[in-house]
Amino acid sequence: MGKELRSRVETIRVRTASAHYPVWVGAGLLRQAGQRLRRLRPGCRRLFIVSSPRVWALWGRELARSVRAAGFRPEILLMNDREQRKRLSTVEQLAEELLRRGADRTALVAALGGGVVGDVAGFLAASYMRGIAYVQLPTTLVGQIDSAIGGKTGVNLRSGKNLLGAFHPPLAVLADPRTLGSLPAREYRSGLYEVVKCAVIGAPGLFRFLEQELPAVLAGEERCVRRLLRDCIRLKAGIVSRDERERGLRQVLNFGHTFGHAWETLGGYRRLRHGEAVGWGMMAATRLAQRLGRIPPAAAERIIALVESLGRLPALPPVRVERLYRQLFADKKKNEQGIKFVLPRRIGRVEIVGSIPKSAVLATLREFTGTRPSR
Ligand code: GLY
Fold first, then answer.
1. Which residue among the candidates 83, 194, 244, 276 is catalytic per the annotation?
2. Are residues 264 and 125 in the same domain?
3. Residue ranges around ligand 1 (CB below 6 Å)
4. Who's near 367: CB < 8 A, 6+ residues apart?
5. Quick one: 336 exposed, middle or buried, by C-beta within 10 A (0-12, 13-18, 19+)?
6. CA–CA separation, 211 vs 222, rounded Å?
7. Which residue of 146, 200, 242, 255 sits with most ligand 1 atoms within 8 Å of its CB, as the best mutation to test the pocket?
8. Number of structural domains, the chain?
9. Closest CA to 60 of 214, 212, 182
10. CATH number, position 251
11. SS3 assignment, position 299
């Protein structure tokens, strides 16, 4: 591997009870993928790359060249990467395809794409012949800072998001920020809501950076993207290393997701992109915390202002608050005390709160129902 290329790559390690693996971040990583995967799997030849037609058209040739040069025989499995297709039927189709092509337990799967491709390909790897190895090559901001890291894989059910899945850690995550340059503007912005999430839950310096550098962040300036990736990946790797199975600490990563998942599901996975639903969800969680007197008003206003400053969010689905409230129970973050909410306490700190009176949740939902698109 050339010294010049290697020097641009940062390695952040995830160390859990079940696996240790690197998250490599650096421009040009896709060109090095072959050599890096070869070191992880010295004897492997069959590499099944799961991707979407759009991502494959942009980055497939570069990846294929790199893995071929390292002695892999790549085979491509394309899938529709819309959230509506993140279903068990897609996993089944891909599994039939793996079988048809003779993939056995020694095969390696590579997920090249955004969060949907990563979650589906990960679940395919988790379940095919009871589990084969895979690597994540995320090409979206959400994928690079969040969904590709931590071993959560799975698909949606009609009744709710990510309700069918498995923890299956990848062998490695390779995040090449050049791929973010080819993202549709809406997709990049959608990822920025997850960046705000990271900032609120544990990176107050990043929060200030976002406030101060917003135009450059929105424009995707390289120095900003580097900072976002570094801070968010370090945060996420640290959290999942301490609590891979989401027994406690990892739940903080769900800030904005309890409300967000409900809106995303009730919008039929069409109206809102995942990050946009999280944007709305963070605002609702912040207003709920404020209603309960758990956050200083000035901190709440800063969170709302930062979310709103990312731009116009699509309108929420027109759903009655009682229906929304019921949908909250389809999420996984509930226990015998009812739903647990991740609420901001201040910038850089959140808390997990159960037993919140239904009346407070309904009142918060009412504030948002019928809300016009922000700005
Ligand atoms: N995206 C939330 C988590 O990985 O736990």
1. 194
2. no
3. 146-147, 150, 152, 250, 253
4. 284, 287
5. exposed
6. 17
7. 146
8. 2
9. 182
10. 1.20.1090.10
11. helix
Same domain? 221 vs 364: yes
* 38 and 97 co-located in one domain: yes
pLDDT in tens, 206-234: 999 999 999 999 999 999 999 999 999 99
User: Does some domain include residue 5?
Assistant: no
- The mean-pLDDT minimum among 201-205, 206-210, 265-269 falls in 265-269
For residue 136, the cross-strand partners are 111, 173
Nearest Cα residue to 68 out of 46, 52, 97: 46
Residues 26 and 37 in one domain: yes
CA distance readout (Å), 28 to 1, 118, 127: 12, 20, 31
| Residue 291 tokens, joined | 């209603």
Q: Which domain holds residue 26?
A: 10-182
**Cβ(250)–Cβ(243) under 8 Å?**
yes
Please give the C-alpha separations between residue 102 and each of 14, 95, 240, 242, in angstroms, as whole numbers.
Answer: 32, 11, 34, 38
Q: d(Cα 151, Cα 128) in Å, to the nearest integer?
A: 16
Neighbours of 30 (CB within 10 A): 22
Q: Do 158 and 294 fall within a single domain? A: no
Nearest to 162 by CA among 141, 180, 146: 146
Choosing from 151, 182, 213, the residue where a domain stops is 182
Instruction: Tell me how far apart the alpha carbons of residues 276 and 97 are, in angstroms, rounded to a whole number.
Output: 33
Contact indicator for 23, 237 with CB cutoff of 8 Å: yes
**Whether 332 is catalytic:** no
| Tens digits of residue pLDDT in 84-121 | 999 999 999 999 999 999 999 999 999 999 999 999 99
Q: Is residue 52 part of a domain?
A: yes
**Is residue 246 flagged as an active site residue?**
yes
